[in-house]
Amino acid sequence: MNNKCDLTVAAEDISIPELLPIPRGLPRRAAITAAILLCVAGTANGQEMVPALKYDATIAGAVPIPPSERTLQAVGAQPWFKVSSEGLILEGPAFERNGDLLFCDVFGGRVLRVTRDKQLSTLISLEKFGPGGVAVHKDGRIFIAAIDFKESKGEIIAVKPDGSGMQTIVPPDAGYMPNDLVFDAHGGFYFTDFRGSSTEPTGGVYYVASDSRAITPVLPRLAKANGIALSPDGKFLWVTEYGRNLLHRVDLTRATATAPFGTSIAYHFTGPAPDSMRADKDGNLYVAMNGQGRVLIFNRNGIPIGQVLLPERDEGHNLASTSLALRPGTDDMYIVTSDRDGGRGANIFHAKAFVNALPLYSDK
What we know:
Distance between the termini: 70 Å
Structural class: mainly beta
Number of strands: 25
Number of helices: 1
């Protein structure tokens, strides 16, 4: 099909080019007139009219929000604490019972603590492993998931609140790359295994009971399993699959068993990439979008209901929003992010959730 004007008047036979932007539904005589005017305008001085794509406000930014999510309720996060002027990759925030916030400097090998009065200190430094997930036991011990990216292996360790008394819970020779973890009501925990790729999904989700070191598979064959959360009643397990942009929902009949037809994909994300997540007391899920500078929020059925946008995301800053934590007993949300080499450093931002945080095992 060429786009040259072809208006040959022969009785009732008028050929109108299909590519001309004539509104549908016009009477035939009006359509012919419009076509003639367009041809005259478009071919003046021998030039043909060629339609062009143009940026608009919805797509001009560095990370435009996908069309299906643009109408979601949205709030902007506010700066809360500047961790570093360098673009450190932060991960795994979790609150201790005294209100201090723990989080990870992944490639610096550190688990950091910021107190309620915003005093920063180092809980522990690891030599070979990059910590990425933190969960607090009700006895106060801090469980840390860490990965050696060079050797493609990882471990889960536990330390006391002062960083001493290190215990190995899942050893490196077990063959996993633990990324994140969550306790259930019985003191066991689920962890994600960050192995694999979109074409070779060798990661998954595993469970370790409180009275055992046995590692039981729950959701195998995932591509870089990442975030993990439980519903308030513990009957549903949620998992983000970083390598294939998926949100999984698992209907549990017991800790390591799924109901018939109990696994499903609740959502397919667009763009980079679902990272860690947390749940509130209504079962809503808050998923940090690493590479988009925002948190996407789902209801208990996996339907998007809102989002939190980080400052300057449209200009390409603060995009490495990897994780978040909800302060127990409140609706306060704290999002960790990095600007990488963009000049804004590594920061923690504050926003409000729909409702209060889900009570965690550490609070029971």
